[in-house]
Amino acid sequence: MRSLGTQFTIATTLAWRNLWRNHRRTLVMLAAIVVGVWAMILFGALMRGMLDEMVRGGLNSLPGEVQIHNPQYRDDPSIENSMAPPAGELLASLDRAPITAWTARIKVPGMLASERDNRGLMLLGVDPAGEVALGFDPKDIVEGRFLESASDRGIVIGRRMAERLETELGKRVVVMSQDLNNEVADRGVRVVGIFRARLQADEESRAWLGRDAMQELLGAGDAVSEIAVTGNDYKAVDDWWQGLAESAGPELETLPWQQLQPFLDSMFRAQGSVNAVLTVIIFLALSFGLVNTLVMAVFERVREIGLMMALGMKPASVMYQVLLESLYLLALGLIIGNVLAVATLWPMRNGIDISVVGEGLEMAGMGSTLYPVLAWQDMLGSTLIVLILGLLASLLPAWRASRLDPVQALTRN
Amino acid sequence: MAAVRCRALSKCFVQGEQVITGLDDVSLDIAEGEFVGLCGPSGSGKTTLLNALGGLDTPDSGEIEIGDLRVDLLGKGALAEMRLHRIGFVFQAYNLIPVLSARENIEFVMQVQGVPAQERKARSLAILEEVGLADHEDRLPAQLSGGQQQRVAVARAIVSQPTLVLADEPTANLDSHSADQLMDLFGVLNRERGITFVIATHDARVMAYCRRLVRLLDGKIVSDERQPGQGQTAA
Ligand SMILES: Nc1ncnc2c1ncn2[C@@H]1O[C@H](COP(=O)(O)OP(=O)(O)OP(=O)(O)O)[C@@H](O)[C@H]1O
Ligand SMILES: [Mg+2]
Fold first, then answer.
1. What is the complex's ipTM, to 2 decimals?
2. What is the SS3 assignment for A179-200?
3. Does the model's pTM come out above 0.90?
């Protein structure tokens, strides 16, 4: 278009001033766009935060984004279904990027007994350095200490478990499990540390022991139950877990968290569609207002649109003029909405305390703090949706304006 | 060359069952530089004729030439181009875009024509000076009197140097003093620039200005007289 460049100044001036001819109507529409955009981004960030929290929480109790087992282990996690510690090609793969940490552990069902009570749980025989590298936070030890090495002979139990067994730091408890010969093996161990977990359930569903001590107890030699692997980004495991599976070979079962915890995965996948549905609903409400605003604006200006056309303005330029006005309104609403959303989320960046409602949420796998995640995809996504659909909705009034007959429009009273 | 030449123009309006005659076999020649008044009672077809000449409306039959252009053969886009570049319009009212200042209203047309911003500004200021509104460039239409508004409309009509200006009752909303001023301006532009004017009017004072007066009745030309008007070049 020859005149597009030179059209710039007056067309934009005209669009901008036209926008403010009916202050109230424009402000109401602007407010609607701002609130809509703000809500979309805010909701997206809270949803992401909640989901992230759930997945992390879920992964925390694995832990490890990818795990390698004996193929029978998941059906029957006894020491019989164990595997040899990694060697050769698998070991080489485990030490390569993007894998940031891995550890081999014993993980078998067992029982813990004090003089007062006993409880079933998973016994983890671990190399503590490996667990810390994998994500165990030593700050979660609320009393005593974490294990010092794989040959540590103490036990670290959860806060809740200590209450259940009515035991405490420094006391002895008995650890029981089935050994390789299906005999009950037991041993008294001293409680050297007490941990807390995001989920109270985790505090009584597992306990940490030294790996050597467990292997010895179960007569398992150097066998382990699982190899847990992390790349420090649960969203990225799809990039590498299959490669690792190849190195592990077909005799071992290598699975990413999505398959280890299908529930987490489906939640994770649902998020995208929930956000999209919400965005579309908010937008539909907005677009009615937007179309109405523009239809009214065009209706009120029939005469001057007729004048412009009588003077020689082409229908396409008339459309462009109406769309430009709509673009201004949308852009203004988007900028304010985005800024407002960021401003709202900024004070929440260190998490918001949801412990009031936390009891219920814990069942869904959440801790008591929600960290909203402001994703640029959410901001860009809602911005693009509002902009594109907004302009599409504006096409109708713009088209109607361009179809006006100048003679009739001019003589209209 | 003739500025305007039309032959056997007819136009009917159908309104429900009724067929209203707008123009009935109108033929008219207007030479370059003429100053023509179109008069006749309300409903006689003045506006219909002006709209047909200006390419705003298409007649049912007949031929129209504006300069070397066969207007009746042009499509919508070409008609818009013709209005934009060759013809200046002055309407009775609602001539200006209310949110644009006097200067911006004038620039608006040049912008649609694709005139660069610098030139637009210079030309609109010069033309405002010519119509006697040099210090009113930043006023919005609502801040101008009716006469001033019409003069801005005239400035806009002539800024792209059209050879023909079509004015439909330009003084209808003006007091007699403003009407005289406007007609004087038309006269000056006609004499000094040689612009051809065709002015539809009810106003006896405007008629008195015109060297040639075409009278319509029921869509027909009933008289076509030359008179000693004030605004005219050599005929
Ligand atoms: N769009 C239209 N639909 C129906 N009839 C129309 C239309 N436009 C004009 N007419 C009719 O055509 C005839 C000529 O109208 P026109 O507007 O040309 O008259 P005019 O001489 O300009 O009158 P006035 O002095 O009142 O402006 C009138 O009878 C009018 O009612
Ligand atoms: Mg008329």
1. 0.92
2. CCCCCEEEEEEEEEEEECCCCH
3. no
